[in-house]
Amino acid sequence: MELHEDDPDLFEFMLKFLYSDHYDKDAIAKLAANDNNKRGLLAIGVYSLADKYDIPKLYEPATEDLKTLLFASASTQAFLSAIICSAYEDLRIDTPTGRMIVSVVLTKFTDFSRTADFRKMMVGYPMLAADVALNLQLIEHCMKASTFSMVTCGNCRVVQATDFALLRKKGATGYSCIFCKTMRSMPTL
To answer: Which of 84, 105, 99 is nearest to 178 (CA)?
Structure first.
């Protein structure tokens, strides 16, 4: 079978995932040949294929894989820039991967988010600018709403808005991160 548009290795990876429900990070690492930049771009490629062929159950593991690479201590601004440029060639507005990338920019690369280079990226990739605007609007809204709190997950470092008052009202004793699903205890009043 000939695949004219899709990377055959990534297409094969996607097919294996469909049959096994296993996101094989070792297979991605092998395809990347120990090149972290290529590894990140492969995770973006997997996400793009999942989106193209409407395989939503592949979104989360591909996004998690990319998030791990972006939050790694060796992650650089150049790596983030390459990921943004590759991802936003195909990403629509407000996708799991887009939300995660913007969260990384605003939490780990805050200095970069204030540069002229980042501004040029937002002009060049309007979906990135829209994701940043949505994220900042959510943060602003949550800061004004007395029941919402901005919390950073201790596991994945993603910032999320959580309505602890509502959770307490429902009798919850904990909450989970919206990205990594790690359970956390409710903060004390």
So the answer is: 99
Beta-carbon contacts of residue 22 (< 8 Å; ≥ 6 apart):
16
In the chain, how long is the greatest CA-to-CA distance? 61
* Per-residue model confidence as pLDDT tens for the chain (189 residues): 565 688 999 999 999 999 999 999 999 999 999 888 899 999 999 999 999 999 999 999 999 999 999 988 677 889 999 999 999 998 888 888 998 999 889 888 888 988 999 999 999 999 999 999 988 887 776 666 556 777 888 887 777 778 888 888 888 888 888 777 888 888 876
The model's pTM is 0.72
Q: Cα 68–54–87 angle (5° rounding)? A: 40
Residue with tokens 């790596």: 79
160: left (phi over 0), alpha (psi -120 to 50) or beta: beta
